[in-house]
Amino acid sequence: MVSSVNRHAAKRGVGLRSLAALIVAVGAAFVIPQPATAEIRPVPEAQGYDYVAGEPAIWGSIAGSVGAYYDKACSGGYAVAGDSGFFLTTAAMCGVGLAPDGSIRADAGYYADVFARRDTDPLVLLKVRPGNDAFQILVDPLTGEMPGTGRVQGWTRSADQPVGLLVGKMGIDTGWTEGRILGIAPGRFGEYLLCTDAPASAGDVGGPVWRNDAAGLRALGTVVGISDEGGACYRPIQETLYHYGAYLPSFGPDQGRPGWGTFAPGMIDYPGTVDATYLGRILDKGDDWRQ
Coil, strand, or helix at residue 118? Predict the structure, then answer.
């Protein structure tokens, strides 16, 4: 990928504040067996946490109560904004079956809550908690490295993401990986996903897909499935923006709120199968998610 290996840290720019109100609870609690030897560690409230795309989106209290032994770990994606405010995105499947508090945490503690989800949408919107902030910056959660400056300059239309395009992905399981678009495959709700051979696994769902070239660092989509070959499959960012009537705040010119997109000319079907039911990975509350 042109310029994609220019990996150096960048000073974080102007923050984007969450403006929404009304937290929508998700899921019904389910019980995971709790070994007697597991250690319950309290999770603090994040204070002054600065979120960047690709960092953890860890869903709390899987066992349905405060101090539960296990959390579900996924990756956080881009931020979008619309009439209801400013929201982070991640994969909706990560929240299936979780306790109704809908809290989201990372290293510093709880930083966001579920705001809204739709039964037919592979993504969910998160509201940043007061006192924290979010940046439209891409970071490898495993190493802290960034493509270029890390600052997202805008997004790329679905029609401009052809077979063979080299793309990058961030996620808490496999970090920064790259691969090429192989074709399209149906997702969980009838939507079509772009599948790649960029390595990915369970905890990477929800993470951002991007490209860095002469046009700058651009958002391409969000990982919502894993192919049978272990590659990231993602919903194009244009379809997410259209679905929510939203725009993508970025460090580049405003591109507005797009209409529904079409895939690139010559697009083909992915020859394998896709699992779009990944629930992330189960994380012992006392463990480091990097393991």
Answer: coil
Beta-bridge mates of residue 271 = none
**DSSP secondary structure string for all residues of 29-49:** -------TTPPP-PPPBPSS-
Contact 209, 240 (CB under 8 A): no
Which region, left, alpha or beta, applies to residue 269 given φ > 0 means left and ψ of -120 to 50 means alpha?
A: beta
Q: Which two tokens stand for residue 215?
A: 């046009």
Answer whether 219's CB lies under 8 Å from 207's CB: no
Residue 92 DSSP code: G
Predicted structure pTM score? 0.86
291 Cβ neighbours under 8 A, 6+ residues apart? none
pLDDT 10s digits, 119-139: 889 999 999 999 999 999 999
